[in-house]
Amino acid sequence: TQLLEQSPQFLSIQEGENLTVYCNSSSVFSSLQWYRQEPGEGPVLLVTVVTGGEVKKLKRLTFQFGDARKDSSLHITAAQPGDTGLYLCADRRYQKVTFGTGTKLQVIP
Amino acid sequence: DAGITQSPRYKITETGRQVTLMCHQTWSHSYMFWYRQDLGHGLRLIYYSAAADITDKGEVPDGYVVSRSKTENFPLTLESATRSQTSVYFCASSSGTGNNSPLHFGNGTRLTVT
Fold this sequence. Notes:
- The structure holds two protein chains of two kinds.
- Helices cover 0% and strands 57% of the residues of chain A.
- Chain A is built from no helices and eleven strands.
- Chain A has strands spanning 4-7, 10-14, 19-25, 32-37, 44-49, 55-58, 61-65, 71-76, 85-93, 96-99, 103-108.
- In chain A, a hairpin with a 2-residue loop joins strand 6 and strand 7 (61-65).
- Chain A starts with a strand and ends with a strand.
- The relative contact order of chain A is 0.33.
- Chain B contains no helices and eleven strands.
- In chain B, strands 2, 4, 5, 6, 9, 10 and 11 form a seven-stranded mixed beta sheet that branches. Chain B has a four-stranded antiparallel beta sheet with strand order 1-3-8-7, with no helix packed on it.
- In chain B, a hairpin with a 2-residue loop joins strand 5 and strand 6.
- Chain B starts with a strand and ends with a strand.
- The model of chain B has no long low-confidence stretch (mean pLDDT 94).
């Protein structure tokens, strides 16, 4: 069974700070996805990365996929209160999507 | 409204009772999923369905039953609820299994078993 570990588990920062969260898999990712979940809602897909070493940017969010395709990081520049939420990495293998335990981010104004 | 809706939003039931959580999607997506979300465990797959009348077990299927007689509906039934099934349940749908077919989630049902 694939295990996806995310760190840190919780993160509370001031508005304007930068942060990085990490996702490590016990096996090679088939297709890495990052989701964000806001309180009281379901997760929403942010990005999908497939190629080892790939870097994708989504405004202030930068997603990096490790060369060996077993780890990933999400960097947020100049965090804003709207970034508050639970960040989940996931591995998509056809019809099965396995999720990590998540990093809960709180951005304080 | 278009999208994926779950009902009820909140449910309190007693141990041993049967309870059904509803999920309805308007996109005609082939794939539908049920996850439960618990602190420390993240999202765990209970059951999924590739099409009407095709269902398969996920990671934690024990104590749950699903059906999919119509493409748009995917109800989840707890046959005899237990306290360990207290959780937030999310339904999701997807048009396919490729990288360009993300999961679209409902807003969840918070179930408490007393």
